[in-house]
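A common beginner's mistake is to predict each chain separately and then try to dock the pieces by hand. The better habit, illustrated here, is to supply every component at once so that their relative placement is modeled jointly.
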Amino acid sequence: MKYLYKIKTLALSFVVLVFAGCENFLDINDDPNNPLKVSTAQLITAAQTNLAYTFANGGSGLGRYTGTITKHWVQRGQLNDYGLEGTDFSVVVSWASLYTGAMTDLQVAIEQGLEEEDFGSVGAAQIMRAYIMSSMVDFWGDVPYFEIGQGSALEAPAFDNGADIYADLFILLDAGIENLKSNNAKVNGDAIYGGSAAKWITLANSLKLRMLNNIRLTRDVSSEVNAVLTAGVINDIADDFQMTYGSSLNPENRNPGFSSEWVAGNGTYIDPFFFETMMGNDTFGHGGLLLAGAGVADPRIPYYFFNQLPIGSGDGDAENDCAYCPSDSGTPFLSIYSFSFNIDPKEGFDQGMSRSLAGLFPVGGRFDDGLGGIASNSSTLLEGQVTGPGNTPQRLLDATEMAFIRAELAQTNVTAEDARALLVEAINASFAKVNEIANGAGAPAVDGADITTYTDAVLVNYDAAAPEQQLEIIMVSKWIAQFGNSIISYNDIRRTGYPRLHNGNTDNLSQTVQTRDFPVSFPYDINNLQLNSVAPEQRVIATDKVFWDIN
Amino acid sequence: MATTMSFAQDRTVSGKVTSSEDGSTLPGVNVVVKGTTQGGVTNMDGNYKITVPEEGGTLVFSFIGLETQEVEIGTRSVIDLQMASDVQQLGEVVVTAVGIKREAKALGYGIEKIGGDKLTAVSEPDPLRAMQGKVAGVNIGGSSSAAGSATRITIRGNSSLAGNNQPLFIVDGMPYNNSTNMAGTSQLTGGGASGSRFQDLDPNNIESISILKGAAAAALYGSRAANGVIVITTKSGSAGASKKGLEITINSSFAIEQVANLPDYQNTYGTGTNFEYSQVNGSWGAPFIGTKNYASTATIPHWYNGVIGFEELWGTEVPYQAYPNNVKDFFQTGKIFDNSVTIQGGNEKSVMTLVASSTRQEGVVPNNVFNRTSISLGAQTQLNNKVNIGGNIQYTSSVQNTFQGGANNAIGNGSAFARTLYLGRNWDLQGQPFQNPLNNSSQFFVATSQADNPLWSVENAGLESQTDRYFASFNAGYDILDWINLSYRIGVTGYNQRNLDYFRPGSRGAGGSGQVVNNYTRFQEIESNLLLTVTKDINEDFSFRGILGHNVNQRTTENQRYTGIGYVDFFINDIDNTDNVTPGGGGFSQRRLFGVYTDLQFGYRDYLFLNATARNDWSSTLPLENRSFFYPATSLSFVFSDAFDISSNLFSFGKLRASWAQVGNDTSPYQIVPVYLLNANGIAAAGATALPLTNSVGTFSGSTLSNIARDPNLKPERTSEVELGLELKFFNSRLGFDVAVYDRRSVDQIVQVAIPDESGFTTFLTNGGELSNKGIELTIDATPVRLSNGLQWNVYGTFTHNRNVIESLRAGAEELVLGSTFVGSVQAVHIPGQEYGLLRGSVAARDDEGNLLINPADGQLIPALNPEIIGNPNPDFIVGLTNTVSWKGISLSAVLDWRQGGDLYSQTNLSLLGRGVTKDTEDREINRIIPGVYGDVNTQEPIRTESGGKVPNQTMVDVNTLYFGQTFAINGQDEWAIWDATVIRLREVSLGYTLPKSILGKTPFGSASISLSGRNLWFNAPNLPEASNFDPEVSQFGNGNFQGVEFTSPPSTKRYGVNLRLTF
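With all components supplied together, the output reads:
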């Protein structure tokens, strides 16, 4: 009996020990460090930095990627010969960060903003979604839109027709404008316009104009264009839609192009074709005329490019045998040719300290004062290294682009505006922008006389040309002005055929061979494509055009 | 503890029992008068004194592990006896789950036991690697030859698609965390060969290791048992009594370490292209004078021509010649010192063990060190006849300093091995300065933007890690009745680890700015176990033991990371010495587990044993309604040789075993609701804009919705396994076989399934997918020679084959990406019906018949649009073979292992070929035609003639292009960088000598032994490029699931060591 009592007591105490305090013991599964909700302002800022980075010239940015396709830059590798692949860093990263980052955060911001009656933020979020989606249609044609952002509830959003998406985006822009017109509307967390509803409304109209111009070949857009012009588009560089960067390296607040291109020794080459066009030369036996400023060197050159070699350098001053050498242009400009990957032996030689780089205007590098120096964005400069301010804005939609679009629309008789006057306005806007950035960086302004000389040369050519070549002059001038935001040039080339780019097979260079055609759209991220059960086949980029490209 | 029963008419017999092997005294031996209950046990000094009947009688001496002996008493009053090991060891006791000790023959599942002596004296500071080649069913791979780097171990394959596949480590009843904590975020894009925390365990303190391979063996650990369990008993934890009252053991070893094998370099051509010299990476340039009759380049401009800071070298020329040893001379001879003292002492009531040891390792790469200092103290005491208490404390300090690794092409990274194994053949690495005198920056033969000078890198960049690890446990036992015992153990283990990852200014790493990353990790685990044990023989035939247990576990992890950029003083690697500091990633997580379990064992006549266990767990990490889950298991052992009494000299032992069990796996904390990430904008790219942002508009913080969609109804993973085993012994147990087959299925996998980005999320954390492991494990233990003069030859062989198949994925999913390297480069993917973690990468375009498509413009390959599966990293089988010959205290042993199959994506081999530095590419004065047909680069279709035929390639390429263009090495598609990683290796050789007692008799030493050892003395990987001499036992990802990928790894090493062991 004594034993039995002991066992019973034991069993009882065991049970008590085991189950006592079990109730709340396991309820500790709330993450103490990450919230379940954040303010709309937080989401707007995150989306803006995401959007700007994705379209900029950083390591994975679409700016430099399209810049290589449009011959602003030259990247070593297959891209040199239009070898875009569905595994390219820019394709994969941009698709992912736009859909899972900006688009999703803006979707939450809209839902949250409507609940909180923060209509200004809602309107800005809608306009940013339209900006992103219209750009994605421009790159990829058909992309998911109407069914996106539902998480695990819908794991296979349909790929929608680009034309349908464009149509809906015009409606979305109107909704955004309406929201921004609400009483005391203000955009929270706005690192671009500081919250100004009026500026966002102007942006919405400007975006409409860009989109209408993109689709102008598909239908008559005259009345819509005139309505947008009446409402008012950006015509002052103070209203430019751009992300202004800071100078902090840690956290990384600098222009993405500066933080990637100005890592000592790491920059991307500038296409000699672009450079020579700006020098006013007909390059490499190109076969056509790049009429813009023919014969007159573009005064923007020292703001666009930075030569690491000082003035007076010869070919032997390069660290290795060069491909496109100082002797080729009589300047310290050094680069490699497009279409020369693995053909020109000199293409692969290291020129990290000798090559010319994107300079002050496109990415916030250094104004080229002719003294050269090894480009670096390090916080501690080594002997011989030079740096730039790094805080140059990333232009996303600006007064220059608007003026060029109006010139194109006038030139193609969509509007009754004066194409010639708008061309002048556009070029002047571009110079104004260069001067604004130069001023911010403490660099000298472009000499007014040089601007006049250059503009006059363009106009002489313009006045002498037939209407089609006048359009070419407008487009070449725009291509030059767009450096730093090459995405627009990629649309322009597909829509107008201008500028006629360097062709590796018809030039007079023995070390270039072009084996692929110009890509008329981007490949899809191949891994992502395999995840979506209703996704279409991979795009054949040489032939699968986007809906508005009916050339 | 000798007890004496007194009978007036009886006499007494006394004596001393010693070991026949080393003459040491044996305490605790049972001495009974045959046929009676009269008897006792020997005391600490091996002495016994018992009362025996007036006349006649036989004494039976027995002790676990020793051969039982019977001795006629006759008229003697003193009987001394020597006892020998029981060669059959049928009574062998092994430590099973929750520390329960059981007789091996009663086990219905496979269990592997390794003695601590097998792990020391082999010149290997990592106890896991010391087990390589010795255990069937286990796959152990070192990640790097760097001192102090992590080791991956899996038991019977992977049970989880994407979660943890490392076994649970239990040290003295307490879980022992084996995480890898790094300063960086990825071992691919930066950082180096970091360690994993199992290395904090001092091998000198390991008494024994039990490997619970199957689910049935591990079932009592419930939700932590899915990957098998490694149960370690330490000397301090077991606090075994010494055979003497006090025994001191000193173990001292020293080893030197060298690079095992470097590539066979060509020394005919220097850097350049197309047989012309230039200052580039690849050695495709002009031949050196004297190697070819046309060679004419005698001197070249100095490499530092024009570099500011080296003005004195400007315009100078240097000889153009080969430096055949420029790679070899980079490495140094490594050293390992290991010293330990073990003190065991006590009396009948209390025992105590103290172990103190120190390991000092210097690797073959300069400034790579691993130092471990450890002290452990364990004690047990009996308070009265019914209450035992004990405790065990251990402290370890581990320090690792290593070089920067990872893939050098990653943005912001600068690997010490960026070019080290493929230096230009004419680079005078040792003869030229590596540091710029102006600013201390790296100076190399190619630009710093490409690679750091390795000599500079090992001095001015690196990783440092300091870990303080503690372990404290307390246990108490109470015999309520002589057949009911209550025991309780509670303990806490944990560590504080500080990691430092730095690049001084002037490196390729961190963009040249100089960068310090600090990462602090605090880990703590509390485990409590209450056990009620009932041991009762029901009758003579039936025995019973039942255990009721209760377990509580809590794990807390906290870490914080800071990045400082820009050095103020070049030489100080401290975050206070940087220009600006930002926090970059940190976290806190806490999880709790609550379990009750039972273990019921029934025995019938000592040959049939049935074991049933059950456990119910409640986990804090799962949703309320799914948080409770139940795991049953059962196993059966049938010793048919005893049952049918068919033992003979020929057939000694036979046992069949069978088991079935279910175990599981919960998830990490905070996985069931979506959260927002603060100061983040959702861009996963190096150099992306970071928040907060300060610009001319203002200062803005921002937050983004996490990219992981959550399943609020998450369930635990479940693994069930059927195992069958057969043990046979022949010829007086001189030949033994143990074979096990198993079929393990894991369902309801918790996976982060990749979902299309357009859903707004990149992944969805949910259940889905089934994984199977089917395998066979074979162990052969044979003693072909055992002579009366003591000469013995033993062969111990293991064979492991495991096939790890993805049976299904979540409905609708065609694949699951396990891991990626760089965007557009190799990935590991799971595909239903295929093996675990196949490698997928880019391939060359082919036509419908499999011919390679050739670009007519240049004779090179055309990349295909879509990547394909290009490799399977899983080995086909692993064989281990240990041969031991021993004679009179001399023992010679060799461990050979053979790993068949398994593919490796090797950037090192790709670079050796692409840079033209090895003899593989020396024969190059010839042009070649890649077999294939001409294709259209735009359409990826073959070019047809007018008649529709294909056109065979006739465009020649030179050898340089063959390895550097859109061809077979650098710049080519991933498929050409895959090699079969089959490797045969002489893993370990040791020669030991134990001094005979006769010599030691007059010395203070109880025993003395000396051994010589060698590790990794030879290997052959036949399917890798011949001249690379590459050891495929390297991997980028430490102990992660993504295996079969290698970027810029240092070569493996070999060691020669000497070990001295003294007891007194």
